[in-house]
């Protein structure tokens, strides 16, 4: 399983394989055509409470990753979404996790990709 991450604002390409939006909110200013998604899995995104606490602060990234992983292991809707994402990834040579955050290093999609690879 090859997992990649990519901003929603970058153009889709054939090399992206299966494109899955992993944000709870739709990326501002991105049309459905531009997004070119195969799936939108809101429940794999961090909870609103966790996202509000984090505020994409690089200083909180390590603690955020721990809390987010706990959420991914935790409740039933999130676990079901994680299993759906794993099934999508297993059915495609490449799966690209699409996210809306500005920083390619400080975002939940990076944590999610690492989590899925374990």
TrEMBL record:
InterPro entries: YeaO-like. It holds the Pfam family DUF488-N3i. This is DUF488 family protein.
